[in-house]
Amino acid sequence: MKYLLSFLLLALTCVLWLTPAWAHRPMRIICVESGGIDYNYRLMQGFIQELHKRKFLLAVPTKGKMHETSEFWDWLVQNSDREKVLFQADGFYSFDWNDNKREPISQVIQNRIKQDHDVDLVIALGTPAGLAMAQL
């Protein structure tokens, strides 16, 4: 998990500083998860700690307060350094382990990326979510 977090943050850091398009505005981020799972909780905890170390977050949440990925997302929306990153308030999606939700949610995300142009980075948690985003 440590290497996964390091890779995610390295990728985010590279995109933030090496892409001129984001030089004058924050990176707009959304998240899609395959469904609730304990691993997502640990991943989001580590993600938040690493973002705070790199000054993307203004604070770190109190341990034990959040148990769902959506709760972490709401916290990120409120506590990020909005000059650097913008965790979109309407940017959390979950398939809830339901195959029937994958296509409609994927279509919404695709429209946001290709038509609305209001997304720069998608965090995909879980294999089904990752595969769905890779097909966009």
Summarize the structure.
The protein has 5 helices and 3 strands. The chain is of the alpha/beta class and 136 residues long.
Could you give the order of the helices and strands?
HEHHEHEH
Q: What's the alpha carbon Rg, rounded to whole Å?
A: 14 Å
* Number of strand elements: 3
Q: What share of the residues lie within helices?
A: 40-55%
Which structural category fits the helices and strands? alpha/beta
Span of the ends, CA to CA: 26 Å
Residue stretches low in confidence (pLDDT < 50, at least 5 long) are none
Total of DSSP H or I helical runs spanning 4+ residues:
5
Q: Enumerate the strands of the largest sheet in spatial order, edge to edge or round the barrel.
A: 2-1-3
Q: How confident overall, as mean pLDDT?
A: 82
Please outline the major beta sheet. Answer: 3 strands, parallel
Description:
The chain has 136 residues and is of the alpha/beta class. The chain is built from 5 helices and 3 strands. The protein has a 3-stranded parallel sheet. The longest helix has 18 residues, at 99-116.
